[in-house]
Amino acid sequence: MSDGDTGEEIMAATYRALCANGYADLTMQDIADESGKSKAALHYHYDSKHDLLCAFLEYLYDGFVERTSGVAGENAYERLVAFVDAVLDRPDDDSEQFGTAILEIRAQAPYEPGFRERLTEFDEYLAGELEAILEAGVEDGTFDPEMDAEDTARFLVTVLTGAATERVTSGRSVECTRRMLTEYVETHLLTDRTREVET
Amino acid sequence: MSDGDTGEEIMAATYRALCANGYADLTMQDIADESGKSKAALHYHYDSKHDLLCAFLEYLYDGFVERTSGVAGENAYERLVAFVDAVLDRPDDDSEQFGTAILEIRAQAPYEPGFRERLTEFDEYLAGELEAILEAGVEDGTFDPEMDAEDTARFLVTVLTGAATERVTSGRSVECTRRMLTEYVETHLLTDRTREVET
Question: How far is Cα B122 from Cα B126, in angstroms, rounded to an integer?
Fold first, then answer.
């Protein structure tokens, strides 16, 4: 078995262990149990739980980029809606437990610079992708050229972060957020010409 | 000393202990140390750390309502901006540590129904106040009557929640959110007539 396969197996086991135990109570033993490996084998690859979780955040980041980059659409408007949907819709059945574990990890960012660095990478990727779609839309006449693409992208990231937090805290579905975001894009970002065609 | 004073002292000590230790590592002993009371004295008032923290969330809720309800303004637009400012601007010096502790507690909501119940109360209060301001603004001609006040209020709560989460995760300031929210209100919610006068 190559190191790549072992790494992939440990990451998948970490995912399952986080869904089952949450972050606060997670131990290397929990991950070892899920992976069918010994704790010593895990420590051979990762010095500490902190190191393993940093690697896990990078693994999540890679998967997230793969899932969301290059979303399809006839124009920038459709790509923006598809991108927002890809972020709001989690691909797995354990999304509630996993979203909770991720919020627990987010709350540790001020104590764990390694977590903060990797979580910030997520937000930067999101903001960068959204900004690129918005700028392409200004370029091709889909979006209002008066818009500040950078600030607007940041605002959209804040909304997506808020929706993820609320899902954990109160169990609220993201449907109201999706509806309001779509309306925001349609009435706020589209040019009049595009609005007539698209909505 | 009345029970009211003791309760108030324990709540203030819990605040300081959360700022100093975060939620995950918080013990009854930490709170006792901050309050100058014995652990036994705390247990006389609260059966468990969970009970004490539920009481603490209620105490925070009362303070939050007191600080944000009845914000002043000439019209609904000014009241909306003042309300958003009151939520974004925390009144204390320990706001970073405290914001972190609150996010840790938010992430425990799925495991602790007592936390979820009280945190949902916060969100319901926020949504209710915002909806009332929006409806008053439609009534007095400040806001666009086409707006769905309930959905818009929920959307604003999501944005405020996202800003609080980002502040913890990446240490980002809330200024971009404040700017974009103000712009959203001005270009999205105001009637044309009000926009000319106010902006």
Answer: 6
Q: In whole angstroms, how large is the CA radius of gyration of chain B? A: 19
pLDDT grade, residue B2 (50/70/90)?
very low
> Which of B142, B151, B21, B165 is closest to A164 using CA atoms?
B165
ipTM value greater than 0.85: yes
The CA-based diameter of chain B, rounded to the nearest angstrom, is: 63
Q: B107 is written with which tokens?
A: 């992430």
Q: How far is B84 from chain A (nearest CA, A)?
A: 15
Q: What is the pLDDT of residue A1?
A: 41
Q: Are A180 and B100 an interchain contact pair (Cβ–Cβ within 8 Å)?
A: no
Query: What CATH fold (topology level) applies to the domain A50-198?
Result: Tetracycline Repressor; domain 2 (1.10.357)
Given a contact cutoff of 8 angstroms between Cβ atoms, the answer to whether B57 and B118 are in contact is yes
- Tell me, yes or no, if the two domains B1-46 and B49-198 fold the same way: no
pLDDT tens-digit series, residues A155-178: 999 999 999 999 999 988 888 899
Tokens of A152: 């607007």
Asked if B106 lies within 8 A of A103 by C-beta distance, the reply is: yes
- The structural architecture, per CATH, of the domain B1-46 is Orthogonal Bundle (1.10)
Q: What is the pLDDT of residue B97?
A: 87
Q: Percent of chain B having pLDDT more than 90?
A: 65
Contact criterion met (CB < 8 Å) for B116 and A169: yes
Q: Nearest C-alpha of chain B: how many angstroms from A188?
A: 7
Residues of A in contact with B188 (CB under 8 A): 184, 187-188
State residue A33's pLDDT score.
95
- On whether the B49-198 domain is CATH 3.40.50.20, my answer is no
Chain B interface disruption, residue of A18, A169, A179, most B CBs within 10 A? A169
A12-34 burial by CB neighbour count: b if 16+ within 10 A, else e?
A: ebbbbbbbebbbbebebebbbbb
Quote the mean pLDDT of chain B.
Answer: 90
For the cut 50, the answer to whether the pLDDT of residue B1 exceeds it is no
Domain ranges of chain B: 1-46, 49-198
